[in-house]
Amino acid sequence: MALIPIITIPDPVLRKVSKPVPEVTDGVLQLLADMAETMYNAPGIGLAAPQVSINHRLIVMDCGKDEDSRLLKMINPEIVRRSEELAVLEEGCLSIPDQTADVERPAFVEVKYIDIFGEEQYLRCEGLLAACVQHEVDHLDGVLFIDHISRLKRDMIVRRFMKEMRQSTGGAPRGR
Ligand code: NI
């Protein structure tokens, strides 16, 4: 197991559409294990492969606290159902450290994915897990949580992040 550096905005890798994973190889399983270790170490509740510079459709999540507290490793996840009902939750992202915003998304979703044994799975998600899985699947399409808020708030967050990054590290992006 190994920690992998997490990239931050404005790294262009975060804006690419990631490729599906054709086969569950040992390399894929190792990467998922490393991503989980990296997520817990950060600490965070979700991590997508593009955040560790790999444009493949892989995510890990552990939303903690309630009955959803378990490590989920998903290969080629796809949101197949979304509720009309919406919910607002505060979100942050390891690729935009220390910045948060209220984001409105479908309150309930169903996600289809391949598990580490190569089996197709369906999972219904609500609450924090629903927001988290939508946030992580967004990463696979080059979408960030700041894309779901007003331009004004987005510009404010990006400006604040870039300023804090310059002040804390003298210009080098954090987390690398
Ligand atoms: Ni994120």
Topology overview:
Blueprint (H helix, E strand, L loop, with lengths): L25 H16 L4 E3 L9 E4 L10 E11 L3 E7 L7 E7 L1 E7 L5 E7 H14 L10 H19 L7
Antiparallel strand pairs: 1-2, 2-3, 3-6, 4-5, 6-7
The protein binds nickel (II) ion (NI).
Short description:
The chain has 176 residues and is an alpha+beta fold. It has 3 helices and 7 strands; from the N terminus they run αβββββββαα. It has one domain: Peptide deformylase (Peptide Deformylase), CATH 3.90.45.
What does this structure look like?
- The chain has 176 residues and is of the alpha+beta class.
- It has a single domain, classed as Peptide Deformylase.
- It is built from three helices and seven strands; from the N terminus they run αβββββββαα.
- The strands form two sheets. A five-stranded antiparallel sheet has the order 1-2-3-6-7. Strands 4-5 form a two-stranded antiparallel sheet.
- A hairpin with a 7-residue loop joins β4 (86-92) and β5 (100-106).
- The longest helix is centred in the C-terminal third of the chain and has 19 residues, at 151-169.
- The chain is globular, with a radius of gyration of 16 Å.
- It starts with 25 loop residues before the first helix and ends in a 7-residue tail after the last helix.
- The model has no long low-confidence stretch (mean pLDDT 94).
- Nickel (II) ion binds next to α2.
Number of beta-strand segments: 7
Shape label? globular
Summarize the main sheet.
Answer: 5 strands, antiparallel
The rounded distance between the terminal residues' Cα atoms is 18 Å
Output the radius of gyration: 16 Å
Please give the share of residues in helix. 25-40%
- CATH C-level label: Alpha Beta
Strands in their spatial order, largest beta sheet: 1-2-3-6-7
SSE sequence, one letter per element: HEEEEEEEHH
The unreliable regions are none
Mean of all residue-level pLDDT scores: 94
Q: CATH H-level name... which superfamily? A: Peptide deformylase
The CATH architecture term is Alpha-Beta Complex
Name the hetero compounds present: nickel (II) ion
What fraction of the residues are assigned to beta strands by DSSP? Answer: 25-35%
List the total number of helices.
3
Report the structural category.
Answer: alpha+beta
How many structurally independent domains? Answer: 1
| CATH fold-level assignment | Peptide Deformylase
